[in-house]
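Recall that a protein's primary structure is simply its ordered list of amino acids. Everything else, from secondary elements to tertiary packing, is in principle encoded there. The following example makes that idea concrete.
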Amino acid sequence: MRNLHAEVENAQLLGNKAEMRRKYVAIHTGNQLLLNNNQIRNANYQSLMNALKQVNLHVQHSAKCRVGKHQADVIQASRDAIKRSDFDQLIKTTLYGVDQWSSN
């Protein structure tokens, strides 16, 4: 982009209007690509945040079904499963708790 701006200035100094126009069109196209990529990145980020909120709510509801040490164990086991991307373990932890599924 910086090179294009320098080339526009050169074309302007030389009085080459056609070249200036081509460079400005190239700058505009580049800006549109950057904006589109940024919008895609933002949409992906929002989607990820929404999914993480849902997972967090799921873990919270699962933990609220238990009391004391078992509640803390479910939260820790869920965090570990999420870190390892082991979603089968996460589901088992949610449904059965920590001690029950580890013996099966």
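Helices lie at 2-14, 17-64, 69-83, 87-96, 98-103. The chain has two domains: 1-51, 65-98.
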